[in-house]
Write a structure and sequence with these properties.
single chain, about 850 residues, eight-stranded parallel β-barrel, six-stranded antiparallel β-sheet
Length: about 850
Amino acid sequence: MVERVEDDASGLSRRWFLGGSAIAGLALAHAEVRAAAVDMSAGTDGPRREVAFDDDWRFIRADIPDAENPSYDHTSWSAVNLPHDWSIEDLPRAPKTTAPWVAPAATWNEHPTDKTDPFAMATIPPSLPGGPPLRVGPFDAVASGGAANTGWFVGGTAWYRKSFPTPKLQSGERVELRFDGAFNATEVWLNGISLGTNIYGYGAFAFELTDHLSSDGENVLAVRVSNEGETSRWYSGSGLYRHVWMTVTGPIRILPWGVWVSTPSIEDQVASAVVAVEIGNALTTDKPVDVTVVVRDPSGAVTANGNTRVTLSARGTGKAIVNLDVPKPKLWGPENPALYEAEVTLASGDKAMDRTTARFGIRAIAVSPERGLTINGVPIKLKGACLHADNGILGAAAIDRAEIRKVEIMKGYGYNAIRMGHQMFSPAFIDACDEAGILLIDEVFDAWERAKWLKNDYSRLFRENWKTNLSGMVRQHRNHPSVIFWSIGNEIPETAEPQGVEIAAELRKTVLALDSSRLITEALAVPLLSDTERELARRSLDVAGYNYGQDTYEKDHKNYPRVVIMGTEQFARDMHDGWRKAEAFPWVLGEFIWSGMDYLGEVGSGSSELRMIGHEPPEVPNVLSLWDYPAYLSGTGEIDINGKRKPQGLYRDVLWGRSALELLVQRPLPSGTYERVSDWGWHDELESWTWPETAGRPVTVRAYTSGDLVELVLNGRKIAEKHVTAQDKLKAEFEVPYAPGTLVAIAYKNGAEVGRKTLETAGAPAKLRLRAERPRIDASANDLGYVTVEVCDARGRKVPDALVPITFSVTGAARLRATGSANPRGLKSFRSPECTTFHGEALAIVQPDTRRGACVIRASAPGLPGDELTIAVG
């Protein structure tokens, strides 16, 4: 059921009651199903046989003429397994490290910039003796074309090939190949015959193989992937970076992403479910098809079933609708993400032709200016963050555990919503959001017909491809309960022009034809739009996404009281004011910080620089980057690329009431300088009282607190106190002469202690300590073990600013997949076992194979006792 109230400005709905659902029709449910390699031979139980097609590929990072020819000899190519991102791999003959240069601990740029272009990206300064090389590991500042947007990584064109036997097929069975994603432009051949192309690098696509399989039993699949130039404004990765699947069904089958489970009416005692099934008939005769649906509740018990019959014409397609009543529905929501399963079976006569199981959720969304956003009738504020899709030192490779871990990290730090910027994410990520109760904005385009500043971005492809790609997003994701918004674009330059208004209306029409159960939004670049332009841009939106627009909230609400807003991007500097407005106004649904986690590329968005006092920079709004090469990270994250909370994230914890007090110390500044911070950035401050070179000099101490008074105690003596008022925005700042020992901050509210934090001076590095996130991992390449090494003093305290060279080694039932630190200048080979710590830490990621047993990880450093630990595998 959808209830609408006319908007006084645009005539669109502003109050909705929406039935929800979950996983897309043919998407597999759960990582453990993905991990299973199913025997494709005839006789396998069930009418659908699906196998992970990830292993035993051959790869070459070059554009090879005639490589689609099945007779081409690829035995000299590299052996790889998927998911595979070639841009994160080492370049030929590139050094593994920047030695003798070591990335500094300070994150500010020591050489200030006077950029006058507000969108100027990081640049490549002149090479200096003893400085970082321009080519190291996967980075090449020159060969990348100076691509700071993509982080100095190199794209290009490459080929993949895979030999495989023809599956044993029963009469009429069909074979399909599905790619969860490939970046970027992809063409696929089977036995020399082109199956087709895909130009949208973030969505899934599928090809029919049956008619082109070899009769002699041996087949060659060839895939050419081209990612030339800067195709995205962030790091996209390159190649077959998501899973590939092969599926065998009967001649009557469920079409790709052809199952849609919706729940248009939800009551306490019963929810009505509608299961729409799109079916293809490969036979040369008309066929009646029996469609049966069995629904299981979250405990696995059968709770509803139904069936219908449709007749499909020869070599035609059709749709079946099965209506069901689900008794006493268990509702999906952020606090209790209950998931159902619908098993759909196709049969003709007495023979089952196809069967798939899809998870779904039952939940109701309502939005109104009076109550804001409600899920199942319960008001909720969106505590959101924007993410890009890369997995840090793994690159874009969408390994299931990396995707799931990212969701776990966000949930663990208190976020209840994620905006996927500005692309479709992997099935594993969205599955994990379904399971965790995370609310999603699903976004598809960063550009329409007009480019931003990249020559090779999607704008050159939009006109001919937008409908296919937009439809793909909706069809692939329309049944995930976590997805509550469809976003049709991000900061589109022409959005308020007549051309853009017309495009937005067409995009809206296309979405609603496929799914009318969710809200449509777009992220508007509010500072660049006038009052009139904002009104024009909102006309096709149910909820207006405002990027950096909190200063216009009250004005727009006054002029258009039925407009509902959410902050779809927010500067770090403005997080306090933006969140306070979201708390105060029901018609502001919440906000999404840019960004939740650091990401590769878009170098220096959250950066800082040292400037001499008195030498003020030019006045430029929204300075994008104050870093230059060798920085390769965005720097904007409230969480670093290895998953640890950054200072701005600790402030967020206080703002959201997760913590009453956090205590940080500004990295001491050279005499006569100050730190200029970009709009997305934060001061270089640490939870550290270890500044041995600063004895006797004052340091800046910042206490973030929800209290009204903060007291500082140094080595047992009270040295300062400050009252904290609303104007202080949760911050008390002190100048304290540094002396080693113990610094304690105590926060009070109305005279009662509400929080206490202690920082101790650590000693010199004395040993290493390893920590594993999980003591046991699965014996599957879809799982990963994350292991952190810490540099500790003799008393076991982490040395908070230690830069120590580490060498990792791994033996047993896993291999070393990647190593790295969160240092934004920490260029290196991520495949090398060598790594220099940052803030006293570094990360190693191990990947199992199919063996059960144990994996032993060791860490060593020159002059320090090492450490080892064991992770059980299997």
